[in-house]
Amino acid sequence: MPITVKLDDLLHERRMTLTDLAQRVDITLANLSILKTGKAKAIRFSTLESICQVLECQPGDLLGYKEE
Fold this sequence. Notes:
By secondary structure, this protein is mainly alpha-helical. 56% of the residues lie in helices and 9% in strands.
């Protein structure tokens, strides 16, 4: 899939664990892990908004596009 998820990089930059983010966003660790590994097929805008609020980033910081 040409959409890339840069969640791991953002977490590393902010010295935050996936568990910390899951608790702050109120999403299961399993679902957040699926997003982080790029296996998610979709993301709700409300979830994207919450992640961006906690990480203080823009959606473009979290998602990218790479041609196959």
